[in-house]
Amino acid sequence: MTEKIVEVENLKLNIGRKKILDNTSLELQKGESVVIAGRNGSGKTTFLKCLANVIFPDQGSIKFSEEVPPEKIGYISDQLSLFENYTVKKGIDFHASVFHIEDFDYTLIKELKLDLNQKIKNLSAGERTLFHLSLILAQEPEILLIDEIIHVIDPYLREKFLEAVIDLMDRCQATVVMVNHTFSEIEKIPERVLVMEKGQFILDEKSETLGEKLKKVVSEAEISDEVPRIFQRELSYFREYFVYPFNEELRKKFPYDYKNTRLNEIIKAFVGGQYVKKGNQ
Amino acid sequence: MLKKEINDVLKQIVFFTAAVLLLPAFLIITTIISDQSYFSVFFPMFQFGLIFWAFFMGSSLFSLEHGQRGMEYLLSLPYSRLQLIGFKIVPRIIAVMIFFVAFWILYNAGGEDLAALSFISFTFTYFSLFLISLSLSASSQNFLVLFVSSLFSLIIYFELLSVVIFLVTRMKRIPYYRLNYRYFFTGELDPYLTGFILLAAIVLLLPLLVSFILSFKKFDIRPAKVYNKRYLKFFTPIFIFCFIISAFFASQGIHIGYKQYYLTLDLKLIESHPYSGIKIYEHNKVHKIKGDFDFSWPSLVDNEYVYQIAHNKTTRSYNKIIRLNTSDYTVEVLYKGLSERSIGWRLQKYDQTIAFVERKRKKDFHDIQLVLVDEASKEVTRIPLEYKLLEKSYFPISIWTNKTEGKRFWLISTEKNWKNQILRIWEDGRIEDIGESQKAPCYVNRMLISYTEEDVIISMEKEGRFEAIRKIPNSQGFKFGTGYWRANLNDLTFKEIFGWRRGPTHPIYAKLNLENFEIEEIGETKGHLHYFSPDEYYFIEIDHVASEVKVYEYKERKQNLLKTFSFNTTEKRNRFRPCIGGIVFREGKKVRAYAFPDLKEIKFKKL
Are A257 and A231 in contact (CB under 8 A)? Predict the structure, then answer.
């Protein structure tokens, strides 16, 4: 049984004349892990900042369930925003006092061998990310919002980061919303994939069903125009077609070699498709 | 969170304190500034430093977060925007108050003489700048932009307050200058009016603060222009509303002016209501005279005629002479000079001619002329006076008149407490230099009374020239005179005139007997002398502590108490007014008149 934890309704947000969010709506369930993808400027980060209370939408509403008081929302921004003149220790103390954290868990800090007297601004991007995560995890958040930061950290720290997130999901049944471009490292995390374009979600699928609904056809010749696709590209000796939505009826009518594809490629296809659309407009 | 803010502000306090304490010490030690005490260098720096401190405390609300890229983190903390403002404002208000109290203590401990701004001006600027910069603190991340916009807004704010005051005075048809609004900043304005101007000023600040709070409720990390647009959306209607409220408060304080009263010799009471005409009360009658007249402070009274030097409302120069006839209740403009010229305070009259001195208002009050106006024909004769001693700065100029060998002359002299040149001007325009006097001279019983450093010199005319006939030692420095606002002094013969000098607590008076030329010291008197006639002398003592005014008559070498008036002497609405005919006393809305010599109350039924 699912439990609704956030309900976002008809968010609208403009910066100048540019629409950033355009009637964006979404519901998030307790414990689910969601990845939001989309091309640059599609509104992903803004949407996440709205959830984190860092940006107020011009219109629309964001309702959190009673289980989610403000101190149970964890947010790691793409800027890794912290009071960077603070030392690690002072940063921890401040965060603990604001979020009423009695026993701060230093495990991650120790694993990273961070000097507590070091200023936050002197930490490397990876250290700072993990430090920020350790602050957020100490809140035991009901919702964890992570903006595009995974790509800035090295593989070792990335693994540590993801382990910690997965552990949180297991331990606290936390809802995790990540904004990401690259899926190769996090393919196992998302249960739900959202693709955003022009401030609206153009794809909202469970990961498991997404693989069923999107297939890839690799062919030297062109395939029928009647086969629905979100993206196609011409490579040196062959063409790639990303067929969506796919069903068995389609296979019977157009018996091409429909292949399963990985999440990373699926997202790339959706994003690529939007670039092509934009080019054609 | 509050702890963090308190720590941040404490650090800023320490830094600021160190700067204002050490900078003067550095300047003195390095002899960049020499021969000055530490305090005399410190205090002016401290005062200007505090102006910057007020700005800094207001505008630095988010500067630390901006500076360390922590704004997004701050906004993601589990606090509402209003809570965030609260955490940030409280320690800053305390810090601003702490330094204000420090300033106040130092100001009273000798800083007053060193202060570049008066206490009221500083206080007003300090708190206004703090609140203005606070309300603009979220409008930009750039400190310089905030500094310039805060200062600019402060200037606009002061100007707006002037505009409100100006509009109210226009609506009430009161000349703006009569309000003396500038005295608001020196604390010399009527407390009642000051209170309402202060209210008007606070209301004018509200649009900035309310717009800040309302727009900050949805403050986020979007570009500042988004916030500023929202701010302006709130600001515009609130500003219009508050401007009206501010004008309302100002209008409550700014009134058309208090009615002024003057009791004439024939015991008629003139009520001057500035800019709305006059009324003349008699026992059971009242006469209204419409017009823009004010006879609240007559320059000359001659039988039924009361003369007033009136001002030009546009140019503010006192360039008109108006005359009220209390018998037929008419007012006439006898003379109207050029607007750039001003009439001196003393008028002299003989037969039908009014004489006075007129000069340019600006540039050292130069271009002095003796002006003679014939009351019947209104013909004007001007005699230029090119004597340097009368120029350079403004001093009242005394004027007397008489005839010798059938020829009319006028004596004029400045009323300085040091060198005064005495001139005699003849009808044909000839000017004769009579000499100098170390105190303001006077002319009485055809005698010119002038002064050297040590003596009183009595001169009389002999063969067309003034010659000293007596030299009376005056080591105590008494200054003798006959008083003003009466015409035809020459028709009166004085047996004696009074002189005075400053005493330790009260003035010390003396009499100069004009028959045997002896000075008789009266000693320390209660109050100041109010001249009336050659035989009657009244002393008026104002005691602000006891809230009373006592009137004494001087008779047989004694001061006898005639009447005590008890009222709040510092309240400007109350007015105690000695006039030629007696005393007019107003307390609140009640007006009473008491006639000389016994100060018996005169009842006016319609008053």
Answer: no
- Can you read off the two tokens belonging to residue B34? 């020499």
Q: Are A73 and A143 contained in the same domain?
A: yes
Q: What is the 3-state secondary structure (H, E, C) of A164-220?
A: HHHHHHHHHCCEEEEECCCCCCCCCCCCEEEEEECCEEEEEEEHHHHHHHCEEEEEC
Q: How far B124 CA sits from the closest chain A CA (Å)?
A: 35
Q: Which of A57-71, A164-178, B31-45 has the highest average model confidence (pLDDT)?
A: A57-71
pLDDT in tens, A70-123: 889 999 888 888 998 899 999 999 999 999 988 888 888 888 888 899 999 999
First to last CA, chain B: 67
- Counting the structural domains of chain A, the total is 2
Boundary-marking domain end, from A179, A205, A231? A205
Handedness of CA A244, A248, A249, A253 (dihedral sign): positive
Does A17 contact chain B (CB < 8 Å)?
no
- CA of A268: how far to CAs of A279, B497, B535, in Å? 16, 112, 115
Is the pLDDT at B483 greater than 70? The verdict is no
Residues A220 and A273 in one domain: yes
Same domain, A81 and A187: yes
ipTM metric: 0.88
**Average pLDDT estimate for B477-492:** 68
Assign 3-state DSSP to chain B and report helix, strand, coil percentages, each to 5: 35, 30, 35
Is-contact B511 B496, C-beta < 8 A?
yes
Asked whether the beta carbons of residue A81 and residue B70 sit closer than 8 angstroms, the reply is yes
Q: Which residues in chain B have Cβ-Cβ distances shorter than 8 Å to A121?
A: 68
| Residue ranges making up the domain that contains A263 | 207-280
User: Residue B236: what pLDDT?
Assistant: 93
Please say whether the beta carbons of B277 and B291 come within 8 A. yes
B385 and B399 in contact (C-beta within 8 Å)? no
Region for residue B481 given its phi and psi (left: phi exceeds 0; alpha: psi -120 to 50; beta: otherwise):
beta
Residue entry with tokens 């000075």: B519
Tell me which of A205, A239, A272 is where a domain ends: A205
Instruction: Answer yes or no: do A231 and A147 share one domain.
Output: no
Q: Please check whether residues A195 and A76 belong to one and the same domain.
A: yes
Rounded CA-CA distance A47/A198 in Å is: 11
- Please tell me whether residues A11 and A53 are part of one structural domain: yes
Task: State the pLDDT confidence band at B233, using cuts at 50, 70 and 90.
Answer: very high
Instruction: Tell me, yes or no, if A137 comes closer than 8 A to chain B by beta carbon.
Output: no
Evaluate whether A178 touches A186 at the Cβ level (below 8 Å).
yes
pLDDT higher than threshold 90 for residue B89: yes
Mutate to test the interface with A, among B81, B222, B230 (most CBs of A within 10 A): B222
- Within this chain, do residues A74 and A113 fall inside the same structural domain, yes or no? yes
| CATH number of the domain encompassing residue A14 | 3.40.50.300
Whether residues A129 and A10 fall in one domain: yes
Residues 30-89 of A with CB under 8 A from B: 49, 52-56, 69-71, 73, 75, 77, 79, 81-86
A73:B220 CB<8 A: no
Locate the domains of chain B by residue range. 2-253
